[in-house]
Amino acid sequence: MTYKFPSDEWIKALMEELNRSEAYAEAAATWEGDFYFLADLPGADKPAMLYMDLWHGKCREAFLVTDESAKTPAFRMSAPLETWKKVLTKKLDPIQGLMTGQLKLKGNMAMVMKSVKASKELVEACTRVPTEFPA
Amino acid sequence: MWFFKSPEIVFGEEALGYLERLEGRRAHIVTDKVIVGLGHAARVREVLESAGLEVSIFDAVEPDPSLETVRAGAQAMLDFEPDWIVGLGGGSAMDAAKAMWILYERPDMDPEGINPIEILHLRRKARMIAIPTTSGTGSEATWAVVLTNLAERRKLGLGSREVLPDIAIVDPSFVMAMPPRLTADTGMDALTHAFEGYTCVYRNSFSDGPCLVAAKLVFEYLPRAYRNGSDEEARARMHYAASIAGIGFGNSMASLAHGLGHSLGGVFHVPHGRAVSLFLPYVIEFCARGEPGSTSYSGMARFLGLPSSSEVEAATALAAAVRALQKELEQPLSLSQCGISAAELEKEMSLLVSNTGNDSSTVTSTRIPDDAETRRLYEHAFEGKPVDF
Predict the structure, then answer these.
(1) What ipTM was reported for this prediction?
(2) B180-383, superfamily in CATH?
(3) Contacts of B359 in chain A (CB under 8 A)
(4) Of B147, B79, B66, whose CA–CA distance to B107 is shortest?
(5) Residues of chain A neighbouring B255 (CB-CB closer than 8 A)
């Protein structure tokens, strides 16, 4: 089974993947911070928004957001759909993507710089979700 | 997409004199008390004053500069309002100067949050000159900033492309009096930069050349500079090698030996160059046992005239060459030779492993160890046992 990205099913599949991952649980044991993942879709007037509540090595909640003001997450990561596709298919290293501005991240950067391993495990989990992209 | 960045590099005899042409109002030198005691700060001050600049000196940078020192130095800059920042010293002084500069321009920033992702908008207040007084760190030619969180006993691998110095003064006269141990420690740091810049996952065609040349220069000239500090040619070539290695790894990345070395240094305070280079042969052996095709050791070995018919053969030859150089320089080859006991290592192992995994250099390795493998790397490095897993 594959999950369409970006969708409620996809982010919930990622939540399950993360909550199965011992490596993520260990690496993110002290992480406290929720995320909006924003994907700019071709022709759409606003980005697709996915929410994840990441807390002490687990994902407590994840869903597709229709109203941006529904949450005020600590972090927001955004990119065009094509860039997300490259990251999720391992064609773009996410750190390289962030450093070159292809992926944009806003939030407490001190937390991010101290949590390299958790970030890596999160991305690894993303790439394990069987994903289907819009044509 | 990637980038290639380098400062304007002024190198060779009398390179310091270039600063007589500097235009500006105030220069703020960031250094340490040893450098002041050696008279280096006075030399730089004199040249800057001859250019018509008012000069102040902050000399409280300690080895492995702390977040607290960076904040204090930034406040001194805010008080003096320089338009030139001068980082004078080894990696600690130059990295501290970079971090202070960021906080001077961006007082809102947390030094732990210095990152290569955000645009910082530096150079609205000042530009930066770096003057290395050791031959190893390469900080004069990179945008890396390594700071220490004392409370967490952790080195933080930070950086921003904007913090690359505008001018690097690579003047060998500053290193002629370096003692042999410092010569060896810092020189091996340069070699580790060259190796890791050439073999990490971010290596690229622009960074390969500097890394290869730097490695060759270190193998040729470091033993001479170590044996005879008055050997002017060896001193000069090693000084250039360090900056060239900085250009190399600064445009790709450091890697796992730095991840392990930063972690070790944060806990046991082993000097940076000694720590990272100690791990280098172990990391070569570890990565060579990773996914076939992931490593690039044969190119380095071929350039150095070592056996290179396969990646495994090249890695074996390179690890042996590094260990031979370490022996020639009377450097420790194991953690036990660094004076760390088995009990001390075991007591700190959990922190060492955790900090290695969270070091920004670790993730650029062609083979990223999991926690159990990281522990084994420390255990092998403790015993001086070649990596066989």
Answers:
(1) 0.88
(2) Dehydroquinate synthase-like - alpha domain (1.20.1090.10)
(3) 116
(4) B79
(5) none
